[in-house]
Automatic annotation (TrEMBL):
The organism of origin for this protein: Streptomyces fumanus
Protein name per its UniProtKB record: Uncharacterized protein
Listed SUPFAM superfamilies: Sigma3 and sigma4 domains of RNA polymerase sigma factors
Amino acid sequence: MARAAAHATLDRNRLGPFLTSVALRLCIDFYRDMDRRSRLLQRAALIDAPLTTEEDVCDEDFGRWLLSQVRQLRGREQEVILARAAGISTAEFARMHNISLKSAEAAFTRGRARLRTACSQSLEGRAV
């Protein structure tokens, strides 16, 4: 607020309305940030809050569909994708399964490419 009030080109006759506007915008930014954080926590399932928006319902449905696609992957690809979804890094996955990092990264890349293809094919099927 002090920096805004001390701005060189500020019209001193409009100082009150200007500072009011700055204060309102700061409040709006604060509450937008709080709302964004709340939505991120809901998506991360760190809190139990009911889904309220259409976007949340769509995200949950897409997540179920994507998980069903992951379960159709074979072997290492499925394992590494599920591990990454659980928050395990590719390097940690490689160490846990006693394979090279390059092998784990390759399996992750192949699995991700197959999921991307499945998603594209699904979208093309819906557009027809």
